[in-house]
Amino acid sequence: MDVSDSAGEVLEAAFDLASANQHAEVRPAHLFVALLESFGTVNPMVITMETFRDELLDPIPQAVSLPGPVLPSSRLRAVWKSAVRHAGDSGTGYVRRLDILNGLAAEGGHAVAEKATMLRRNLGDLTDELRSEPSRTAASWHLSWDDAVREATR
What we know:
Layout: E1 2-3, H1 5-20, E2 25-26, H2 28-39, H3 44-49, H4 53-57, E3 71-72, H5 74-90, E4 94-95, H6 97-107, H7 110-121, H8 126-131, H9 145-152
Protein backbone atom coordinates (compact mmCIF):
# COMPACT_ATOMS: atom_id res chain seq x y z
CA MET A 1 0.00 0.00 0.00
CA ASP A 2 1.23 3.48 -0.85
CA VAL A 3 0.89 6.69 1.11
CA SER A 4 0.06 10.24 0.01
CA ASP A 5 2.88 12.78 0.11
CA SER A 6 1.19 14.68 2.91
CA ALA A 7 0.57 11.51 4.97
CA GLY A 8 4.23 10.52 4.52
CA GLU A 9 5.28 13.97 5.69
CA VAL A 10 3.06 13.59 8.78
CA LEU A 11 4.71 10.27 9.64
CA GLU A 12 8.18 11.77 9.20
CA ALA A 13 7.21 14.81 11.29
CA ALA A 14 5.97 12.56 14.11
CA PHE A 15 9.35 10.81 14.27
CA ASP A 16 11.14 14.19 14.14
CA LEU A 17 8.92 15.55 16.91
CA ALA A 18 9.66 12.60 19.19
CA SER A 19 13.38 12.91 18.52
CA ALA A 20 13.39 16.70 19.06
CA ASN A 21 11.66 16.22 22.42
CA GLN A 22 14.11 13.44 23.38
CA HIS A 23 11.34 10.88 23.66
CA ALA A 24 12.43 7.25 23.47
CA GLU A 25 9.53 6.21 21.25
CA VAL A 26 7.01 7.71 18.85
CA ARG A 27 3.51 7.61 20.28
CA PRO A 28 0.09 8.45 18.86
CA ALA A 29 0.37 11.90 20.51
CA HIS A 30 3.34 12.70 18.25
CA LEU A 31 1.40 11.58 15.19
CA PHE A 32 -1.65 13.62 16.22
CA VAL A 33 0.39 16.79 16.78
CA ALA A 34 2.22 16.29 13.47
CA LEU A 35 -1.14 15.79 11.74
CA LEU A 36 -2.48 19.01 13.27
CA GLU A 37 0.59 20.91 12.16
CA SER A 38 0.15 19.61 8.61
CA PHE A 39 -3.20 21.39 8.37
CA GLY A 40 -1.74 24.82 9.09
CA THR A 41 -4.18 27.39 10.43
CA VAL A 42 -6.90 27.13 7.82
CA ASN A 43 -9.55 25.72 10.13
CA PRO A 44 -10.72 27.17 13.46
CA MET A 45 -11.01 23.66 14.93
CA VAL A 46 -7.36 22.96 14.08
CA ILE A 47 -6.33 26.18 15.84
CA THR A 48 -8.37 25.14 18.89
CA MET A 49 -6.79 21.67 18.88
CA GLU A 50 -3.27 23.15 18.84
CA THR A 51 -3.86 24.05 22.49
CA PHE A 52 -3.73 20.32 23.28
CA ARG A 53 -0.14 19.96 22.05
CA ASP A 54 1.51 20.41 25.46
CA GLU A 55 -1.20 18.43 27.22
CA LEU A 56 -0.45 15.44 25.01
CA LEU A 57 3.35 15.68 24.76
CA ASP A 58 4.42 16.88 28.22
CA PRO A 59 3.53 13.64 30.07
CA ILE A 60 5.80 11.59 27.78
CA PRO A 61 9.06 11.02 29.66
CA GLN A 62 12.30 12.18 28.11
CA ALA A 63 15.03 9.63 27.49
CA VAL A 64 18.33 10.18 29.25
CA SER A 65 20.12 9.40 26.01
CA LEU A 66 18.96 8.08 22.68
CA PRO A 67 21.26 5.27 21.57
CA GLY A 68 19.75 5.08 18.08
CA PRO A 69 16.72 6.11 16.09
CA VAL A 70 13.43 6.73 17.87
CA LEU A 71 11.17 3.69 17.41
CA PRO A 72 7.38 3.43 17.23
CA SER A 73 5.42 2.42 20.31
CA SER A 74 3.09 -0.57 20.15
CA ARG A 75 0.13 1.82 20.33
CA LEU A 76 1.47 3.73 17.30
CA ARG A 77 1.76 0.45 15.42
CA ALA A 78 -1.92 -0.21 16.16
CA VAL A 79 -2.82 3.29 14.92
CA TRP A 80 -0.87 2.72 11.70
CA LYS A 81 -2.49 -0.68 11.09
CA SER A 82 -5.88 0.94 11.59
CA ALA A 83 -4.96 3.73 9.14
CA VAL A 84 -3.93 1.13 6.55
CA ARG A 85 -7.22 -0.70 7.15
CA HIS A 86 -9.18 2.55 6.65
CA ALA A 87 -7.24 3.20 3.45
CA GLY A 88 -8.15 -0.27 2.18
CA ASP A 89 -11.79 0.28 3.07
CA SER A 90 -11.82 3.60 1.20
CA GLY A 91 -10.69 1.89 -2.00
CA THR A 92 -7.96 4.45 -2.74
CA GLY A 93 -5.10 2.00 -2.38
CA TYR A 94 -3.02 4.45 -0.36
CA VAL A 95 -2.97 6.00 3.11
CA ARG A 96 -4.08 9.64 3.35
CA ARG A 97 -4.07 12.06 6.28
CA LEU A 98 -7.79 11.28 6.69
CA ASP A 99 -6.90 7.61 7.19
CA ILE A 100 -4.32 8.58 9.81
CA LEU A 101 -6.96 10.65 11.59
CA ASN A 102 -9.35 7.69 11.50
CA GLY A 103 -6.61 5.42 12.84
CA LEU A 104 -5.91 7.84 15.69
CA ALA A 105 -9.62 8.01 16.53
CA ALA A 106 -9.85 4.21 16.58
CA GLU A 107 -6.58 3.20 18.26
CA GLY A 108 -4.89 6.32 19.66
CA GLY A 109 -5.57 5.69 23.32
CA HIS A 110 -8.13 7.59 25.36
CA ALA A 111 -6.80 11.19 25.23
CA VAL A 112 -5.64 11.11 21.61
CA ALA A 113 -8.65 9.14 20.34
CA GLU A 114 -11.04 11.59 21.99
CA LYS A 115 -9.33 14.59 20.39
CA ALA A 116 -9.01 12.89 17.01
CA THR A 117 -12.72 12.05 17.05
CA MET A 118 -13.55 15.65 17.94
CA LEU A 119 -11.33 16.95 15.14
CA ARG A 120 -12.80 14.50 12.63
CA ARG A 121 -16.34 15.66 13.45
CA ASN A 122 -15.43 19.32 13.01
CA LEU A 123 -13.14 19.45 9.99
CA GLY A 124 -15.71 21.02 7.69
CA ASP A 125 -14.22 21.99 4.32
CA LEU A 126 -10.96 20.19 5.01
CA THR A 127 -12.70 16.80 4.78
CA ASP A 128 -13.02 16.99 0.97
CA GLU A 129 -9.40 18.07 0.63
CA LEU A 130 -8.28 15.13 2.77
CA ARG A 131 -10.37 12.66 0.79
CA SER A 132 -8.84 13.77 -2.51
CA GLU A 133 -5.15 13.71 -1.58
CA PRO A 134 -3.15 12.21 -4.45
CA SER A 135 -0.93 9.23 -3.76
CA ARG A 136 2.83 9.54 -3.80
CA THR A 137 4.06 8.88 -7.31
CA ALA A 138 7.85 8.90 -6.95
CA ALA A 139 9.62 6.62 -4.47
CA SER A 140 6.46 4.82 -3.51
CA TRP A 141 6.06 3.85 0.16
CA HIS A 142 5.20 0.22 0.66
CA LEU A 143 3.62 0.13 4.03
CA SER A 144 4.90 -2.79 5.85
CA TRP A 145 5.56 -1.21 9.20
CA ASP A 146 9.34 -1.81 8.96
CA ASP A 147 9.52 0.01 5.63
CA ALA A 148 7.57 2.98 6.99
CA VAL A 149 9.84 3.17 10.04
CA ARG A 150 13.00 2.91 7.92
CA GLU A 151 11.75 5.66 5.59
CA ALA A 152 10.75 7.95 8.45
CA THR A 153 14.01 7.53 10.34
CA ARG A 154 16.45 7.95 7.42
